[in-house]
Amino acid sequence: MSDYSVAFSANLFGGNDCGKTFDSIGRASCEVVDATFFTGRFHSSERDLEFSKLMSRLGVFLRLSLNWNSYKSVRVNAQAVYGAAFLIRSLKERNGFPLPQVVPTASGGVQLEWHQNGVDLEIEFDSISKADVYYEDEFRGESKEFEMSCDFSPIWPYLEKLM
Q: Domain total for the chain?
């Protein structure tokens, strides 16, 4: 069985502590350790490979330059990448939850998207501790928008509706 390694070329703080602060280029102002958050050895199951690709894609977002979309976009904020990565890692640990599509936003954020079974769920991270959530279920006629912190518990019921 093959192993795959995923790594960012950045440093991250350890743990899921939303109280950390960052400088203007996204470095933690507290003690920083080598990135083990994005580095891991994964067996080649389909879900592990999908997870590896998502984490690698997030790493690419960190290297996007100004105006990466040719419409005056700003650089992707490292805090937004880290926030999205924490949620994706939480999803991986909860087998059965679908992994999202990930896209950078022109304003420097990272958006996670799910569009399936008549449900649209979009989570846009502006930082490691703040995300805007948009949910719509066309079959039930439900929609909701709210802000989320690093506590992901408010989104689990909406993710369950995707399954």
A: 1
